[in-house]
Design brief:
Malate/L-lactate_DH-like; alpha+beta; Ribosomal Protein S8, Chain: A, domain 1; two-stranded antiparallel ribbon; 10 helices; Ldh family oxidoreductase; oxidoreductase; 40% helix
Length: 343
């Protein structure tokens, strides 16, 4: 988000987001989950998946694509595995439920692997990895999305932006957190840059014929993580998300999704799949041993030698610094969202 964007207090944004979702008919439980996930994203600086998505979700609730009052169903499939049926509601609701189920399974089996089906847009995957880590569990969360990313050397949309998020508890500190798209940037970053009329970085997006562009209005396709030289890594990692969230759950492949944006159909559910893996450290080396080890690891990492002018950070350090800044100074909001929330 541009530094000159207007900033608003977290509490005000939470109130306005909840109000707009309530006006759109979302149940109390589902809108609370969506608000929680969006505010997480906005606070840690992932503006593409933050409060700016409120308008989109409200449109989908109004059009019928999203069930306003989803009734989640859980089916345990094994000692450490389960499926959550999202009832075509807001994806945040089903995803947070999957983390809760995963923790219940992990407390007994050591691991809880939970698939989600008949869901919708997940938002920031890190919100769900964080939910597990804050409760003391090592947690992985992923989803696949509609095709918008080319393969390495490809000239057509194939994978979605397909995020991978991992989080782990750290005694006396905020969790270790890695939340990354397997594309060069998220699609919502392009939408945000269009709203701000801001040029895209080099090597992250392409026109429909596969030519690289920095114009957000011309960009129709993203490049995989690693760009033109090392994009084979991002393209393969995108397939990991598809493996877990679509193939294991029996849901929708990237290429078969109804597009999130741009189509006329806003009434047909998308049957998105997600996947959450929750691990209880007590069932491995032990929580105390794990806690001491990750603390030593992070201390060593942060004390590592740096090159001139450089800095080393653990995954999550940037996010927590940004969260502290935004809690103190306010969350920047783009013009379209300002108008929709009535700020």
């Amino acid at each position: 988000m541009e530094s000159e964007a207007p900033r608003y207090p977290e509490a005000l944004l939470r109130e306005r987001v909840e109000a707009r979702l309530a006006e759109a008919g979302a149940s109390a439980a589902s809108r609370s989950a969506a608000t929680r996930a969006m505010l997480h994203a906005s606070l840690v600086g992932v503006d593409s998946h933050g409060v700016r998505l409120t308008g989109h979700y409200c449109s989908m609730l109004g059009g019928g694509r999203l069930n306003k009052d989803p009734q989640l169903r859980v089916e345990q499939r094994g000692a450490g595995s389960a499926m959550v049926h999202g009832d075509d509601g807001l994806g945040h609701f089903a995803a947070f439920k999957a983390v809760e189920v995963g923790m219940e399974l992990a407390r007994v089996a050591g691991v809880g692997a939970v698939g989600v089906k008949h869901s919708s847009h997940l938002g920031a995957a890190g919100a769900y990895a964080m939910a597990g880590a804050e409760a003391g569990y090592v947690t992985f969360a992923t989803t696949n999305t509609d095709s918008v990313v080319a393969l390495f050397d490809g000239a057509q949309k194939f994978h979605g932006t397909n995020p991978l998020a991992f989080a782990a508890p750290v005694p006396g500190q905020r969790p270790w957190l890695l939340d990354m798209a397997t594309s060069s940037i998220p699609l919502n970053r392009v939408m945000l840059h269009r709203s701000l009329d801001k040029t895209l970085p080099e090597g992250v997006a392409a026109t429909p014929d596969g030519k690289m562009t920095t114009d957000p209005h011309a960009a129709e396709m993203l490049l995989p993580l690693g760009g033109v030289d090392y994009g084979y890594k991002g393209a393969a990692l995108a397939g990991v998300a598809t493996l877990f969230s679509a193939l294991l759950t029996g849901t929708t492949l990237d290429s078969d999704f109804i597009p999130m944006y741009g189509g006329d159909d806003i009434s047909t559910p998308r049957n998105m799949g997600h996947f959450v893996l929750v691990i209880d450290p007590d069932k491995f080396a032990g929580r105390d041993v794990f806690g001491a080890a990750i603390s030593r690891y992070l201390l060593s990492l942060r004390r590592s030698a740096v090159r001139d002018g450089g800095a080393v950070m653990a995954p999550g350090d940037r996010e927590w610094a940004e969260m502290d800044h935004r809690k103190a100074e306010g969350i920047p909001v783009d013009p379209d969202t300002i108008r929709f929330l009535g700020l």
